[in-house]
Design goal:
The protein has about 270 residues and is α+β, with helices and mostly antiparallel strands. The protein has ten helices and six strands; from the N terminus they run H-H-E-H-E-E-E-H-H-E-E-H-H-H-H-H. It has one domain: Zincin-like, CATH 3.30.2010. Helix 3 crosses helix 6 and helix 5 crosses helix 7. The radius of gyration is 23 Å and the shape is globular.
Length: about 270
Amino acid sequence: MKRGSVNDYYVKGEKRQCILFYLIVALLAAFVIVLAFAALNYLKTSSIVDLVTSAIYFILCIAIGAIAGVFIFNAFSRFKYIRIMLRNSLKTSSKNFPGVFDAIKIAAERLSMEPVESYVTQNPAVNAFMVKPALLRGKKIIVLNTGLLSTMEGNELLFIIGHELSHIKYGRWRRIGSFSLPYILSPQYTEYRCDRGGLVACMDTEACVRALLKLVTGKEFIDRVDVKSFEREDKGVSTKMLLKLASHPMIDSRIRELLRFSEYSK
């Protein structure tokens, strides 16, 4: 598999998002400049400059305060949730969940990064996620639900761990050309990229596909799914709409893109 190919491969529409993002930024900047000049000219010719200025200042303060309040409240709520969850979780080590501990080291080595701390928490949901336990600064860690550990086997678990490690390695920014693009218009592209990182970590395409399918079917019903037909499934307009609104792409889309990357990497 090619070195660095995880971040060199682009999902269809990804570069177009870059152009759209900077176009929107440019249009917003132009709008603000035009509005500022219009307001300045109006204020110069107005006899109620002080009243208008005070009103604008008051409205801006209210708006900025409300936005800041929402962000601060969300940050503290998330921080409190993470701390409570970790208090009821077990840190992996060579003695506690040694299989997970070793898988973290293997995946990190294959992704050319340092291993990170990982925790196991009692939760039947088939899920794993990356969090930052400190409010401001601090190292990011991986949390795995017990439901995930009872569902994923061997390379499937390596894929999931590689996916979460890729979130830490690559973050929410993507360099396209000479610019760095934040995934805020379509954050699902980060999931595609982290799936590619998961494939690099486990080096087993079939295991990656099984792991993604198990997120839908669970362990008990995976044998009832025809992978070939599932990866060709087309959900039409709903898929395009979900791509814009959902935090994660649909599973069938993730499988298709992962298989395309697997062919690209050969």
